[in-house]
Amino acid sequence: MSGRPRCLHRRTARDQRGAVAVEAALVLPLLFTMMFGIIELTMLVRDNVAVAAAARVGVRAATTTAAVMSGPGTCTYREDDAPLCVPNDSPAPGLAELAADAIESSGSSMNKDTIEYILVYKANNKGYPGDDGNTIMPTSCAGYSSCVKFKWNDAANAFRYANGTWKSTTVNACAGQADAVGIYLKVKHEFVTGLFPADVGVDDRAVGKFEPLPPDSCKSSSPFPHP
User: Fold this and answer.
1) pLDDT tens, residue by residue, 94-130
2) DSSP states of 1-45
3) What b/e sequence results for 102-129 when a residue is b if at least 16 CB atoms lie within 10 Å of its CB, and e otherwise?
4) Whole-angstrom Cα distance, residue 43 to residue 199?
5) Residue 162: CB partners within 8 Å, gap ≥ 6?
6) Which end of the chain has the least Cβ crowding within 10 Å, N or C?
């Protein structure tokens, strides 16, 4: 009689351990999935914030430097580091190059080599490249006027001109009629935990008007036009 309770106790303990193991096998994968999901979501939100901040850094640099960078860019090399054009004969204005440099040197937590490309363009009334009314953001400036594209170059550790044309002499920075400039960034966000196998694109744009230049040099038809 005295052995039966001990046997029953041992069986109950084994049953409890077995139940705990089954519950752990069911619950732990869900907990790990939630934890990895929180990590991935946090990093995706971080990249979204970083892209938005970088776009605003670029547009601030472009709109506030028209007075000193209103001429053509240097454009000694393009994104594949091949010679492109002679100094002062760049298809990109100096303010566009300065905007790309500002994004590169900004203290963002985003890796610069995750930026697929940057578009710097004269913005229409909807904030996009091209004619007024266009609401499509292109992946290239080819076929668009007053638009230049930059891509990251690992060897140069900087953004390089890729395509497009925006002649600096077409920039209008006169008070009351100043052009608007847009900065668009496209970034590839890479998931790190393996929970999501594919990368996802993150993008943002910012638009602002040029700070006015003096009236005698604010556009190409001024008495002393900027270069």
Assistant:
1) 889 889 989 988 866 677 878 999 999 999 999 999 9
2) -THHHHHHHHHHHHHHHHHHHHHHHHHHHHHHHHHHHHHHHHHHH
3) bbbebebebebebbebbbbbbbbeebbb
4) 13
5) 78, 79, 117, 140, 141, 149, 150, 151
6) N
Burial of 87 (0-12, 13-18, 19+ CB in 10 A): exposed
pTM of this structure: 0.82
Q: Which residues lie closer than 8 Å to 149 by C-beta, 6 or more apart?
A: 117, 118, 119, 120, 140, 141, 161, 162, 163, 164
List, for residues 197-223, the tens digit of each pLDDT value.
778 999 999 999 998 888 888 888 888
